[in-house]
Amino acid sequence: MRRLWALLTKEFIQMRRDRLTFGMMVMLPIIQLLLFGFAINTDVKHLSTIVFDQSLQQDSRDLLGALTASEYFDIKYAAKDFQEVTDSIERGKTKVGIIIPPDYAENLKHGRSATVQVIVDASDSMAASSAIASAQMIGQIKSQEILVKRLQGVTGKQVAPPVDIRIRPWYNPDFVSAFYMVPGILGIILTMTMVMITSMAIVRERERGTLEQLIVTPMKSHELMLGKIIPYIFVGYVQATLALLVGALAFDVPLRGSIGLLYGLTTFFIVASLSLGALISTVAKTQMQAMQMAFFVFLPSTLLSGFMFPREAMPAFFYHLGYLLPITYYLEILRGIMLKGIGINFLWSQVMALTVYILVALTISVIKFQKKIA
Question: Gene3D superfamilies per the record (predicted)?
Answer without folding.
Answer: abc type-2 transporter like domain
